[in-house]
């Protein structure tokens, strides 16, 4: 039986998962592929430290001379058929991927950052070389969303994408919902449990989710996406009070990354959103990820699964390795464009500015409990062309005390909303601080 | 730009959907594929009747001489690059697919029956010819489950498959749940709305779902599956009372098709099941389909979407056409085995008999409301090694009246359960009729 030799760059969580999977499921993989897939060589920056305790050698059954720190030597090794780039990050990863592609060596990567930031360069290089570039694992871990956008939906016009793409945020929001706790305290617990990093900014500020939705939007709409050019809001501002109100309104709060084409522009964003409990994404809790895709012909689809973790990510990485191995064995040029659209057929879409976006809104003010207050607030919204759908005023208070006043609006333009909120916050009947969360309408219920 | 010519066999619901999709999304498809995909020729048994109202010609823009009734001529036409078999059924479809493969012409089909019954022959023929056979549309319409089992999970050991694969049954059960109505009355309404056929047996007796799970199990476990060799129960016996009790127990009743490997045997079955409301499949209502797949490494995943309908099915058919077109254009032999495992690597698994299966059970008796009754019933279960998890007795009655007695068991062997039920039904304290529904435990909650 033919042997396909994989070189692994980076032996962290995912790298170890890949080694374990290839070891544990080798027989099954051969029965499907018709070739054996083996880890031929591993390069890791801190290989020597790791090597001292002999763990790698035990696990991977690889001779010591093929364990090293030199990524270039691994890529250049003529015995390495496929390069798995699992180091993450930007600079080195980009360089390694380009070097491998330059040698027409197929690359499989789990690195969302390098694809979100340098995707255009990498896609173009892969196309020029006629060399497959697999990156299923870069978005939503084990969920096969990249494959489905590149292949399953190849015939369809994608109307919208919306996902829960960051497990850390989903865990924190689920815990806040379950326990009624605040953000800071829940974040601390998530850090203790290993669900959040010591520096949580990348996750809780929405950066990770923005990288992932940029990749998916690129595939869905055939356009480069500048990750610095769209609205990204994290979950730090979500308060227990809003989670409680959401529940009362039959909603959950999730960090949603979404993209859709509207009038020739790309509406792409990451922000917390209220979803009705009927919405399939609202039911996805804990560290799970989910992606909802709506095709003009296929209709709405939802994919739910593990978005991270060593084993789930490795399953996606090795799935890509097998696909690439099939291409290698067929001896032909890859005809599946890395970016779903052929290079000459990609058309840059202008990104909708935050101010042009349309949403429905949940707003919570602390307002005086006096006659005429609601009328002034509603009047300010009305003056900006924003109509209210629902108003909840909680409790009764003395003339000078504030009570929560919650409003749900119909769809409105973000700029109008900001103007209205600015005006209202200056009224003497509300406190200047308010909470604002966008609402995802019940457009994808499967009931 | 190169042109790929599709010949369409069968211009029914799906055939028309494919013609419309290729017409409507031709530009988008070219941007992804780098070739134009056109409907070159159509054969339909009742073409002449259809042709008289000129509809086909208007829609498909195909010269009249390429619309006919002769399937063989279409397959043999050297200008047809890909054959789309959309006539359904067994005999003719099998013959057409084999004829096309015999000419090394790739085939795409939406026909679950022919694959479930003649799959082994068709897979083997496709492998021998090195010719792709696409059948994404045959199971769960637009949901990309075939692609994911063949490719996404190629690296993983699949632990279990469970799906809502028949939209008619799901619609009926959802309506019964929503409205509290009985089966017959709901079926009638479903027929009026076009969600059920005039002869509903194929759907409501579970046959359609059994074909689909047979195909999925074949792909997941690399084994031929005899569709007549496993337990298939439909939904005719589900009563409004059981749906109401399910709700009380925090469950929904769904027609579930499932498969898993247990101790070297294939546990495959179709039957109504109670699912906890936390289970992601329990939330899928109406005519939607859903498939839950659990991979040893990937973990649990759920895919939800439209399982039928002209447009959704066409989206899957044309997705396959594009994949096949990529292979055609690469000029190489297909390396993706039609049945996910290579022909020589498939290993027939023995199918677990219904009597060997293990399940938890919901049972509803009509029992006399007298002291000692529960003890006799529980004793009979205990004598057959079945332990009870929960007992609900409803209402009070006179000494000679019957009240509903609902029991939930822990996992037990089906044969033991049948023996116990047979004995209990002969007791003078219960009516001989009872309801029995298997329970799916809460193993796949994503919360």
List keywords for this structure.
3 domains; Rossmann fold; 18 strands; Dihydrodipicolinate Reductase, domain 2; homodimer; Alpha-Beta Plaits; 26% strand; six-stranded parallel beta sheet; 38% helix; 447 residues
Task: Describe the protein in words.
The structure is a homodimer. The first copy, chain A, is of the alpha/beta class and about 450 residues long. Chain A has 3 domains: about 5-140 and about 310-345, Rossmann fold (3-Layer(aba) Sandwich); about 155-305, Dihydrodipicolinate Reductase, domain 2, CATH 3.30.360.10; about 355-440, ACT domain (Alpha-Beta Plaits, 2-Layer Sandwich), CATH 3.30.70. Helices cover about 40% and strands about 25% of the residues of chain A. Chain A has 16 helices and 18 strands. The first copy, chain A, has helices spanning about 15-25, 25-35, 45-50, 55-60, 70-75, 90-100, 110-130, 145-150, 165-180, 185-190, 200-205, 205-220, 240-250, 310-330, 375-385, 415-425, and strands at about 5-10, 35-45, 65-70, 80-85, 105-110, 135, 160-165, 230, 250-260, 265-275, 290-295, 300-305, 350, 360-370, 390-395, 400-410, 410-415, 430-440. In chain A, the strands form 2 sheets. In chain A, strands 7, 8, 9, 10, 11, 12, 13, 14, 15, 16, 17 and 18 form a 12-stranded mixed sheet that branches. Chain A has a 6-stranded parallel sheet with strand order 3-2-1-4-5-6, with helices on both faces. In chain A, helix 7 (about 110-130) packs parallel to helix 12 and helix 15 runs antiparallel to helix 16 (about 415-425). The longest helix of chain A has 21 residues, at about 310-330. Chain A is elongated. The N and C termini of chain A lie far apart (about 50 Å). The interface between A and B is large, with 73 and 73 residues.
């Amino acid at each position: 039986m033919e042997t396909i030799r994989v070189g692994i760059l980076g032996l962290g969580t995912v790298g170890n998962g890949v080694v374990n999977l290839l070891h544990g499921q080798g027989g099954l993989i051969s029965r499907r592929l018709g070739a054996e897939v083996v880890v031929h060589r591993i390069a890791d920056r801190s290989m020597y430290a790791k090597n001292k305790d002999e763990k790698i050698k035990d696990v991977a059954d690889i001779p010591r001379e093929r364990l090293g720190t030199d990524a270039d030597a691994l890529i250049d090794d003529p015995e390495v058929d496929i390069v798995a780039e699992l180091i993450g990050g930007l600079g080195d990863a980009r360089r390694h991927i380009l070097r491998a592609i330059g040698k027409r060596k197929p690359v499989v990567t789990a690195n969302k950052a390098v694809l979100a930031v340098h995707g255009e360069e990498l896609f173009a290089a892969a196309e020029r070389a006629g060399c497959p570039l697999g990156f299923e694992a870069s978005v939503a871990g084990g969920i096969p969303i990249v494959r489905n956008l590149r292949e399953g939906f190849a015939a369809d016009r994608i109307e919208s994408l919306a996902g829960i793409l960051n497990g850390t945020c989903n865990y924190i929001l689920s815990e806040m919902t379950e326990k009624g706790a605040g953000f800071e305290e829940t974040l601390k617990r998530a850090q203790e449990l290993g669900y959040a990093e010591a520096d949580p900014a990348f996750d809780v500020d929405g950066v990770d989710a923005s990288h992932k939705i940029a990749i998916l939007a690129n595939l869905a709409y055939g356009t480069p996406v500048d990750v610095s050019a769209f609205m990204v809001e994290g979950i730090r501002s979500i308060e227990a009070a809003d989670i409680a109100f959401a529940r009362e309104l039959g909603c959950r709060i999730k960090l949603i990354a979404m993209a859709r084409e509207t009038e020739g522009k790309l509406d792409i964003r990451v922000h917390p959103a209220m979803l009705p409990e009927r919405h399939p994404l609202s039911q996805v809790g804990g560290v799970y990820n989910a992606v909802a895709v709506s095709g003009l012909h296929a209709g709405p689809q939802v994919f739910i699964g593990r978005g991270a973790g060593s084993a789930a990510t490795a399953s996606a990485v090795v799935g890509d390795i097998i696909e690439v191995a099939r291409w290698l064995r067929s001896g032909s040029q890859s005809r599946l464009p890395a970016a779903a659209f052929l290079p000459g057929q990609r058309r840059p879409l202008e990104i909708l500015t935050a101010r042009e976006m349309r949403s429905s809104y949940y707003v919570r003010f602390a307002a005086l409990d006096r006659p005429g207050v609601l009328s002034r607030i509603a009047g300010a919204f009305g003056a900006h062309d924003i109509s209210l759908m629902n108003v909840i005023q909680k409790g009764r208070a003395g003339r000078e005390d504030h009570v929560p006043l919650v409003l749900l609006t119909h769809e409105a333009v973000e700029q109008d909303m900001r103007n209205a909120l600015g005006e209202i916050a200056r009224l003497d009947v509300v406190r200047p601080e308010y909470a604002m969360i966008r609402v995802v309408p019940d457009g994808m219920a499967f009931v």
